[in-house]
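User: Predict Flagellum-specific ATP synthase's structure from this.
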Amino acid sequence: MTLHPFLQRLRDLELVRPIGFVRKVAHGHFEATGPACTVGDLCEVAGEGAAVRVEVAAVDEAGLILVPLEQNRQVRPGARVTALPGGGSAAVGDGFAGRAIDAFGRPFDGGGAIAVEARTALAGSVPRPLDRAAPRRMVKTGLRAIDGLLTLGEGQRVGIFAAAGVGKTSLLEQLAGQIECDRVVLCLVGERGREVEAIWRTLSARADAERFTLVAATSDETAALRARAANVALCLAEHWRDRGQHVLLVVDSVTRLAMALREIGLAAGEPPTVRAYTPNVFAALPRLVERCGATGGGGAITAVMTVLSETDDVDDPIVEVMKSLLDGHIVLSRTLAERGHFPAIDVSRSISRQAARLMERQHASAARTAVTQLGVYDEARVMIESGVYKDGANAEIDQAIAMRAKLMAFLRQGQSENSGFADTLSGLRTAAGSGGHA
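Assistant:
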């Protein structure tokens, strides 16, 4: 029997809401006696003057460990804790296209309220292995260094590994603006507020601004909010992929996301490992990558994720883990940046694991020639630039020296320059030699 709508609404009312109480306030987290929750649920703690939203980071027999999603507003022991419904979900829908939102899905672009079509689990769902599709179509970035030598495909997950001040942000803006796709979801984790404003001002001024959605949690916000931003961005990207669209997801940066997760893990009592990173970090990063990619339904999430890499330190666990998880990595060189060579992509140290399947034979041959000659020059750089090397001593080095000027000119490109693929391929063949032999 169908209940009268009024009776159904009455039945759905929460007449009794379980509560708990804060028993300890520490830096970066609270400990509470309840209510009954699971990890990832949201609660509200009654502070002095205003309530504070918190996320459940750990549950044990003593109660809950809560990490704040907002700045601590004078929470004291004994404060009431109430569970919030729907905390483990994110709002999605076409209303988010062309908008800038925070980690709760609230707009901060002054554009008014957003119409929510549905809510989806914040943790998302990783496509099963046999539901995935290998990249079949090339992603044309308009950048000669990438399209020519590091070709990417739809649904590929690639990392940009860079130190500060080598043109990472400019490269991301160029990729986001030039890659042909249905949607672009740009997630900024732990960035400065000034950079968020500058990027949004650039994107919102474009003629195709409706393609872009910005999700941001700045460096001054809590660790839980910074971590939540990445999941909200993924939920939006998954929503559009499941409708057959090609989505470009840009996450800047995975390193700051890992730092936020480490802060949460330490607050939850997890043991620190290499560089004090906690186990929850190494559980979250594979899921971040695996939620992206192409599916058999025709949709795809092409992911570009930045990783801060100041040196070649092999002990940096985030750099090593991300290189093992991603389908390719693009390394930016400080040496090239200091010489005014942009984009400062070090093609000898970069790789696209999908390039071989996407390139045609002549393209692949010319690319191999270019990468080989650049590598030979780099190995002999000290001898060449110090004057120790004498012409004619080694045929390979002589050839690398002869080709270097053309190759470097081919790879150098202005930020506003969008190179068509046919022009890129023609330029590569010219720079690598007319035959493009390996």
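DSSP finds 14 helices and 20 strands in the chain.
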